[in-house]
Amino acid sequence: MGRQRRDRRDDAQASEDPDALQPGTWPIATGEVELRPDDLSPGAWTVLVNGVPSSHVDPSRPELLDFEYMRWMAAMLRTHVSAHLDPTSLRVLHLGGGACSMARWVHWQWPQARQVVVELDARLVELVRGWFDLPRAPLLRVRAGEAREVTESLTESTREVVIRDVFAGSVTPEPLTTVEFARQVDRVLAPGGLYLLNVGDTRDLKGARAEAAALREVFEHVAAVADPAMLKGRRYGNVVLVASHAPLPAAASPEAAAMERELLIDPVPAQHKDASWVRAFVGTVQPRRDPTP
């Protein structure tokens, strides 16, 4: 399919029919969402919120994860489920959903998983439901709400996996980065559960260090995945942090070796760093905490 030129009239027509899968922009509660075709992947779409790419979806290929950090998360999640969890009874909580790219992948990988996606913007949720054929309840529920409030409302030990991918602009809201919030996630996780976090950070990696420090205060095991340039402080980008009370792959273990092979052949090759590396990475950095009442 060739790239088609479009003008302001085309955008206006798209905006009048928000359920149509076509290029356009629409107002949402938190600003504006744009649906843009991916010229490099026919049939795929990028969803931008306030000009920032939020999700990438190919309606016919839920297994396709275009954002590298999601592929890194997928590698960690497959490894952990294989080692510690029952794939036929997974309960997954997504904090931040966008167009539900990760939830669609989880459904493709483990069709029996029960998932809840929490998205702050109710209008965005409506639009995404109209654009893309998402799994229906009870396999996937999309809930409008604030991530921390929803997490605090959940019953303890009711999720095997929690995935946090929440941003306001380029940063995660601070209430979702504190020791106290990590404890809330820990409370919600069932034994053997896994907490995956997408941390957007600058070259100094202060944010990733503070978040890793918070996780180490709550969870027995913490690991990290990122590309070498990010870990060396050469650019802005993403660090995936992983936390659990169940053992995570240790350096040089067969599990780590298998996962690292997958990470290294990724289009954006990444490195897996185990708990000992994370401990040194944090050093003397203090975690963030909720403000004292």
From TrEMBL:
<dbReference type="GO" id="GO:0006596">
    <property type="term" value="P:polyamine biosynthetic process"/>
</dbReference>
<dbReference type="InterPro" id="IPR029063">
    <property type="entry name" value="SAM-dependent_MTases_sf"/>
</dbReference>
<keyword id="KW-0620">Polyamine biosynthesis</keyword>
<feature type="region of interest" description="Disordered">
    <location>
        <begin position="1"/>
        <end position="26"/>
    </location>
</feature>
<protein>
    <submittedName>
        <fullName>Spermidine synthase-like protein</fullName>
    </submittedName>
</protein>
